[in-house]
Here is the input.
Amino acid sequence: MRLPHPRGPASAALCQALSGEPGMTLEHIVNLLPLLDDSSPAALTDADLQVTLAICYELHYNGFDEVSGLWEWDPSLLALRAAAESLFEKALVTLLGDVAPVDPTAVPQLLIALSSDDGGPSLAKFIQRHATADQFAEFVVQRSIYHLKEADPHSWGIPRLTGRSKAALLEIQIDEYGSGELKRMHAEMFRVTMEHFGLDSAYGAYIDVVPAITLATNNLMSLLGLHRRHRGALIGHLAAFEMTSAIPNKRYGNGLRRLGGVPTATRYYDEHVEADAVHEQIAAHDMCGVFARENPAEAAEVIFGARCCLALDQLFAEHLLAAWGRAESSLVAIARSR
Here is the structure.
């Protein structure tokens, strides 16, 4: 994967620094981060900030072809990441409000109630009934940023849980990774869907053309996964993700069939209809419910993580539907200069 194209002064300076050897100070880049009003959630859609975060986080995954692996734990880079994360976290709190106290025994029921609220725009219904082949392909491009590394961000939670909640997380993750069989890994299934549309299925191929909100939905998972203090929010995010997956994926599969999609192309979506119907029960009760009862001080974080997941997914859906409603592309045009 190549470094993304910069989308502002901070990401430009970071890309330039990463082309050199670790050890240089990045303090000046902190001063280039967007000056955002704390009373606004603008950080969620600020392209410069989200690209900067995406670059910092990717160093903990596959990294970049032209970047030394020594940058991953470089103290100056971690300080920059922390400053960017502070803006991101403030935006989440501005959007959703402070983390509110939660009765630990009520966590499963609260997750069910949150996941049953369909008050936002239904991207899945639009794709099922109305999306053109080009719009469906755009949707696939947008989702490729996550689906080509599906389950990886939530796997950061495995060493941070114990007992029954850890076993529940592993049960979900094992399915995501195809029980060790390559062709059944969800990321590999998604590659087949991409290839049906003639898309480039290389990891990170489309990071330059997705909007800031798409990067934010992915950065959120890494933010939660890379900080132990957010372990409750991480599993809450996963629970909301799984509990709102089965019905939309059924709609996506039906929408692709309407457009002539063959079984190998729809397999990714069809697989999630059955798997996630099981996962949602495991996630709500065995993972989050048990974790909250055993760690009552972190119960509120579980619900906050779920709310973050649902809120950013709603913003993502609104972006796509608004663009398509104007007969425009939901992607962005970034010209490479490097």
About this structure: The domain at 104-325 is CATH 1.20.910.10 (Heme Oxygenase; Chain A). The chain has a mean pLDDT of 94. The chain has 15 helices and no strands. The longest helix spans residues 263-294.
